[in-house]
Request: fold
Amino acid sequence: MKAYITDSHLGQELQTGNGISYINNPIAHTKNFRMILDDVAERGIKEIVFGGDIGSPEMNQWFFDVIAQRGFSLWMVLGNHDTFAAVSQYYPEPANYIKEDAAIRYIILDTSDNKIDGERLRWLREMLNTDKEIVLFVHHPVLAINTPIEGLGAALQGRDELKALLKGSHKKITIFCGHYHMIDEAEEDNIYQYTTPAASYQIGKETAEVEIDQSVCGYRIIDTTGGDITTEMVLLLTLP
Reply:
């Protein structure tokens, strides 16, 4: 089993009123993150997939240290608040890479620049060439979600090309993503997408305007035992 945790925004204190912005605060969201890691450990889960957006660059070392101190293994996905140059000081894998077990190929795709380009599409096309089932970890949703932040520039640039490539593979593709700070499940042809709420704060989904909820944080449990993929949401009340 794996714990999929995303959008911790460590050190980024949320400001609201005119869109979403942050001010630096070294303790911002750190209690939430520790609480989530404690919950993961209590369940006996040893592997973490982090879906991107650690937070302010100054918190990168704290993030990797607190995960290592608890003995978790880590797969890192880059989000739009991360840079490969900063993260690579603490994490040895390239920006785009794969992991595999007997039944599944896990593809980790970098969208930290908020787009998908031709070079990454060509790499992904090669990685899809396998008889194994495909799980794609990517920060941004590939399938559209009915939320006001879709129209605020948050959507992945080039996602139509990415979706076309995944559909054209004629394989079952399971996507785990974050970025939108909400729970969502979507299906389109051979693509099954699971969007996971943030470890920091949540954003309302089907609302007229952007609505923020700082009362809850969460993560997703992914179980691929025997090659079957099942998921379970875990929601936790935030600490004062």
Remarks:
- The longest helix spans residues 30-42.
